[in-house]
Request: fold
Amino acid sequence: MTKELVCIECPMGCRLTVTLEDNAVVDVTGHTCPKGPVYARQEAVRPLRVVTSLMRASNRERPFSVKTAAPVPKDRVLECARIIRNTRFPAPVRTGQTVITDVCGTGVDVIATQDVS
Amino acid sequence: MKKVDVLVIGGGSAGLAAALSARENGAENVLVLERSAYLGGILRQCIHNGFGIHKFKQDMTGTEYAKTYLDRTLEAGIPYLTNTFVVELTKDRVATVVHPEQGMYDIHADAVVLAMGCRERPRGMLLIPGERPAGIFTAGTAQRYLNIDGYLAGTRVVILGSGDIGLIMARQFVLEGASVEAVVEILPYSSGLARNISQCLEDFDIPIHYSSTVINIKGRKRVEAVTVAQVNRNRKPVPGTERDIECDTLLLSAGLIPENELSKQAGVELSRITKGAVVDDTLQTSVSGIFSCGNVLHVHDLVDHVTLESESAGRNAALWVQGGLPDTPRSACIPVSDGDGVQGVVPQYIRRTGEDELVPLMFRPRQPYKRCTVCIDLDGTTAVRKKFLVLAPGEMSRVSIKRSLLAKAGSVTVRVEVQV
Reply:
């Protein structure tokens, strides 16, 4: 099986063709530099994204910003965003503080990216 | 009159980096003026990641990047005033400021660093016909309403322009539960980063229509639909290609303009291309002792580059104050001009002698290029050649020249050579 990807490492936008066997990458073609295959090997098998979003404080009108402490599988991004959107957390919050543990069973925590008093 | 060594106008990424650098390089009495209630500038509303990759070798959110500089500023004890508006700046470096408690007064500075940032192009500059209902925002305004104030600007969104802020907002509206109907770009390519096209649009199946624009806005009280049409090579709508897209919100993400009202007052010469100050390689403007950096000098794509540039401006301002930077008239500098395929080279002048041997030149290509060479010509003869796999108008690029090569040069031109 092959997959077509556009490399995002630089504006060159190389069109990569990834050959997969049993969901493992066996070949990458179409790249100009070594960044292409590195990107493709992750993206073709298990694409990951950091989710950055807003969390509403339970005791404060304005929201604060959060992110997943590590990338989560791409197909879980919307689910994670919905959980974050519907969670209320009391201020004060410090940058780096965990506000949700193990979001959507991904094993990844959601942490604050802003200080609020 | 209040006196300072280095006065920094603007407390965003550029201003804080310049102030810290001025202090580190020996300027004792530094003051930062910020018109909003907080230091940090536009990064306060940039909750997405992708910052700091060059500067800190890690992927940070805008808020985290801003905090790093905010903490350093507070740690260094650099004085600053928020809610403070500079209403006038003279060529003698006297700033008239208005402060809510201290009132209106003058500050004289030995050196001024202009770090006022930029603004978005509003609807009025885009000349979109149609009704004037609620629901039309610049992308950055919608970003502010959401990330600072907590209000989502709409639920069905069309975005005009594929600048990075628009792409980032497309993703954020989806994550907040809204739907993004389309991104409409008048050019045949995006001015945004490749990463953002992929991760903000393709990840969420948001269509982007190239060579297309919004030719009408419908709705009396609130936006109800926009009419989108394809455009020809002259960017004129092609009859018969019009179609309506229902939406309640139109976001505009169609370019940024440096905010140089104060620079003009001080008599600083501005570039018609960058819309920022014309500077030499110390980032000094045409007015002695006034320096410029960050988005007010030329619009950047990455804050990492803003930081580096502003550190240089702050260092040079400190040198100037200590008498370590000779006053070099423009007539004694070598002019730098845009050659084929190149737009907005900064700096526009290079001094023949200077502290740094390597002089960086920042520029944007006029169009996307693949496998090309950027040449620096001295009086028509190529002195430096640098190969690029790719150049895109959405990403500022850089070439450097050794100052020792410039001793006898009368002019410098940067141009793109396409390989055949």
